[in-house]
């Protein structure tokens, strides 16, 4: 895929942040989400609502964002985020281009998302076009995630998703590699035409990751990519796995900012990176990291923590602004038992079509505006 070179719009100084409001965004999952390092049964996130005033016209527009967390992956909790953003309101109203230096990445991501939504609504433009005026809308074909579970359950779940059109599975591993391999084989047996993105969430040490990778090759499993096979700071281990396999090795926990990206590139540790708004600190930072990753020749995944349709839609706008990505990992809204938003549709299958509605094209289901 060819990246685009559209410039980021300049931040307009004649915009003012009027209010910032926060509330828990807790939505139950259809079944527990289990990865190598955590287990959750509902989204532990925060809804961020921002009012932004155009000082030239006096028009005030609200935007919404999702500050996502994931225990053992992010250091901030929902309570931390709400406290940070409530403290910020003490300095309002304030100019749009404040740096918000006291915010952690998850809180910053939620605020940044809401500000982009409000600003794009004021401009009558979708966020993806505000991020990159040269971008063109395209359909993103997402994988679907299979949590760590018993092999037979993973196989049944894969078949159910395949009936909805999914043929690319992101399979969580990282606890016991023999059990993990059994689960992967069961998935492939259940859906023979599938392809796999395997995500260890830093659950293996380097030696185990190498042994696991060797077994993937021996079994001739249809692997597209292996994500974060070993520890966050184990650059030597990541590089060893990268050199040992023919498929992409993607950094997730190891790549949170431009400094991380530069180190990974210098060491030749991986061949791709996963961009997530919550860990990068929002759209502004994520698109910069994405462009820099492209310059290093990395493939791109755009993913999420466990987010609602709001967070997933924002991530999709990022992917479109980057000219598309090799690995759209925009599936967690399908894993939830309820949807608190209306507007931009994600459909029933793997295709995500981002519209040209202003902002993110979403609103809370229980509100009229």
* Overall pLDDT metric: 92
Give the CATH architecture of the largest domain.
Alpha-Beta Barrel
Compute the number of helices.
11
Shape: globular
Using the coordinates above, name the CATH class of the largest domain.
Answer: Alpha Beta
Distance between the termini: 37 Å
Low-confidence stretches: 1-12
CATH homology-level superfamily of the largest domain: Enolase-like C-terminal domain
What is the helix content?
A: 25-40%
The helix/strand series, from N terminus to C terminus, equals EEEEEHEHHEEHEHEHEHEHEHHEHEEEE
> What is the CATH third-level topology name of the largest domain?
TIM Barrel
Evaluate the radius of gyration.
20 Å
The largest β sheet comes out as: 8 strands, parallel
Q: What structural category arises from helix and sheet content?
A: alpha/beta
Main sheet: which strands, in order across?
Answer: 8-9-10-11-12-13-14-15
Write the layout of secondary structure elements.
Layout lengths: L14 E11 L2 E7 L4 E4 L2 E10 L5 E8 L10 H11 L5 E2 L9 H19 L3 H5 L7 E3 L2 E3 L4 H12 L5 E5 L4 H14 L4 E5 L6 H13 L4 E5 L7 H10 L3 E4 L6 H10 L4 E4 L1 H4 L2 H13 L3 E4 L6 H13 L5 E2 L12 E3 L7 E3 L8 E3 L5
Parallel strand pairs: 8-9, 9-10, 10-11, 11-12, 12-13, 13-14, 14-15
Antiparallel strand pairs: 1-4, 1-6, 2-3, 4-5, 7-17, 16-18
Describe the structure.
The protein has helices spanning 78-88, 105-123, 127-131, 151-162, 177-190, 206-218, 235-244, 258-267, 277-280, 283-295, 309-321, and strands spanning 15-25, 28-34, 39-42, 45-54, 60-67, 94-95, 139-141, 144-146, 168-172, 195-199, 223-227, 248-251, 272-275, 299-302, 327-328, 341-343, 351-353, 362-364. With 369 residues, the protein is of the alpha/beta class. It has two domains: 15-124, Enolase-like, N-terminal domain (Enolase-like, domain 1), CATH 3.30.390; 139-364, TIM Barrel (Alpha-Beta Barrel), CATH 3.20.20. The strands form five sheets. An eight-stranded parallel sheet has the order 8-9-10-11-12-13-14-15. Strands 5-4-1-6 form a four-stranded antiparallel sheet. The protein has a two-stranded antiparallel ribbon with strand order 2-3. Strand 9 (168-172), helix 5 and strand 10 (195-199) form a beta-alpha-beta unit.
């Amino acid at each position: 895929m060819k990246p685009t070179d559209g410039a980021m719009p300049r931040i307009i100084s004649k915009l003012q942040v009027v209010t910032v409001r926060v509330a828990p965004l807790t939505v139950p999952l259809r079944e527990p989400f289990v990865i190598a390092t955590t287990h959750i049964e509902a989204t532990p996130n925060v809804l961020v609502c921002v009012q932004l005033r155009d000082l030239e016209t006096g028009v005030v527009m609200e935007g919404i964002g999702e500050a996502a967390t994931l225990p053992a992956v992010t250091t901030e909790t929902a309570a931390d985020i709400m406290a940070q953003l409530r403290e910020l309101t003490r300095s309002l109203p304030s100019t749009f281009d404040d740096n918000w230096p006291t915010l952690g990445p998850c809180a910053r991501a939620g605020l940044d998302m809401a500000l982009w939504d409000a600003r794009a609504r004021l401009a009558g433009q979708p966020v993806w076009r505000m991020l990159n005026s040269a971008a063109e809308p395209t359909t993103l074909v997402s994988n679907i995630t299979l949590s760590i579970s018993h092999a037979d359950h993973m196989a049944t779940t894969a078949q159910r998703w395949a009936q909805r059109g999914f043929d690319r599975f992101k399979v969580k591993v990282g606890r016991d590699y023999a059990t993990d391999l059994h689960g992967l084989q069961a998935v492939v047996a259940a859906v023979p035409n599938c392809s796999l993105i395997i995500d260890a969430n830093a659950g293996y040490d380097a030696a185990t990751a190498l042994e696991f990778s060797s077994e993937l090759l021996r079994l001739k499993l249809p692997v597209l990519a292996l994500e974060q096979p070993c520890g966050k700071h184990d650059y030597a281990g990541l590089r060893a796995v990268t050199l040992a396999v023919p498929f992409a090795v993607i950094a997730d926990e190891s790549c949170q900012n431009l400094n991380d990206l530069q180190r990974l590139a210098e060491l030749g540790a991986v061949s791709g990176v996963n961009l997530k708004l919550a860990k990068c600190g929002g759209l502004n930072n994520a698109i910069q990291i994405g462009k820099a990753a492209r310059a290093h020749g990395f493939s791109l995944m755009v993913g999420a923590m466990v987010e609602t349709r709001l967070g997933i839609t924002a991530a999709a706008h990022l992917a479109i602004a980057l000219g598309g990505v090799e690995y759209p990992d925009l599936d967690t809204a399908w894993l939830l038992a309820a949807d608190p938003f209306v507007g931009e549709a994600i459909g029933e299958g793997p295709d995500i079509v981002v519209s040209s509605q202003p902002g993110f094209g979403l609103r809370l289901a229980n509100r009229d505006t």
